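## Example pair
The file below holds two records. Each record gives the amino-acid sequence first, followed by its structure token line.
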Amino acid sequence: MTDGSTDRDEVRSGAGPDRAKVVIGGGLAAVLLAVIGATGGWVLAGDQKPPRDTTLDASGSRAPTSEGSPTPRDRPTTATSQPARPTPNRTGLTVPELVGMDFEEAREELRDRGLGWQFVFGSGDSSRVRSTEPAGGLPVKRGATVKVTVAGAAPESSIPDLVGDSCGEARDELVDDGFYPRYPSGKSGTVTAQDPAGGAVGRWNDVVQIWCGTTPSPEASEES
């Protein structure tokens, strides 16, 4: 025969393990519900994967990026254009040293090298070259004109009689005598008239008109 205290002790000792199982089971269920809840949240939000990291784009807004995305290659740098270099003088032609030389001798030097000339006269009696442009020794292309400054004034020169000569012959003769020819009627044919007339006295750099292939009209003669 037992008393009531023994029965109560057995009941309390048997309830201890059952209560521990209940507590552990409840904890596992809570963890599972948390995991399921988080996964369910992604599914309900319409995302099958966790949200990706984001970075700032050039405008400052956040743009999504993914791991493993290819990195854009650096664009090739465009070479800056260089200023065009001057074409080297392949002929080796240079302006002769003419300073101090008589201007007629200087003209022959230029002519021998295939260069043109333009005389600029000063004042006084000296016929010596004061300077040239380009200067002596500088490279120049064949056929280029060299400006020659003469210290003294343009000397006098007699105008040749050109009527009856071909236009080309008349031109050469005028140039040799220091004049500039002008062609009111063209550069072909025989010289029919000239102004000033042959035998007149002029000066270097004066202009002489020659009519080639045709006779000038009276009006043209009066205008000249």
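Second record, same layout:
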Amino acid sequence: MFYEGTEKRLEIITTEMDLLQLPEAFWQQMVEQADAFIISKIENIQLKAYLLSESSLFVWHNKLLLITCGNTHLVKAAQFFQKQFDKRVIQSLLFHRHQAQLPDLQKSSFAQDTVLLKTHLQGETKHWQGNYRGDLFLFGESPTGAVKTKQILMLHGLCGNFACSLQSGSVSQQLIASRLAVLRFFPCLQTDQFTFSPKGYSLNALAGEQYLTLHITPEKLSTYLSVESSFEAQVMQPFNEHLHALFRPQQSHLMSFIDHPDQGLEITVSSVM
């Protein structure tokens, strides 16, 4: 069986509206546009975190982050949001696709998605080649004070005893949580997790306005783990090292987001050993 674990990401920062005041039905409809559905939710006064059938949705007062995997059609969710509100509400929009392992199985290409996005917003594109391949469409600039994604760690080709156990689909949620040890590294996080049938695992976590999300696709043809967060690199480094030791990936990429006051958003990708 093949399942596309690599993600697509939609980040929208708004102005003059409070996204946390929108009804639950709005988020359900938006997620459904991308061919996914909401499984569960945790929240505090600053942030709502939804676990989805295909990854995660995070909502702040002035920002949303929708991450999907599999064969989802994320650009449709972007179009849904654009049609609901005047485009002046959108201060910035970032649409990001990691290169799919089997792109021909996806419902659209990045080029096709960009054509649709540009019917509402004129943005710039960026492309990566080489060991990491991906594409990004960016409109506007992130305002000062918005919660920023700091890094995404992507592990491909998971190896070792624990990875093999996950492939068998026989590992309990309790054991997965114990081996990942998220709360040992981040004891103050509020967490929400889900184990898929026959296999697969997702976790959302939040602390105040900060977030962390982790997803595992253990299929033998596409073993993959991603962890994304708004925590600083030095905070994430011990946990990232733990994941490398646990899963012994064949390939590892770290995407870092750096917001320069004078140069805007810089996104770099490095291979991690």
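Notes on the second record: The chain is about 25% helix and 35% strand. The longest strand covers residues 251-260.
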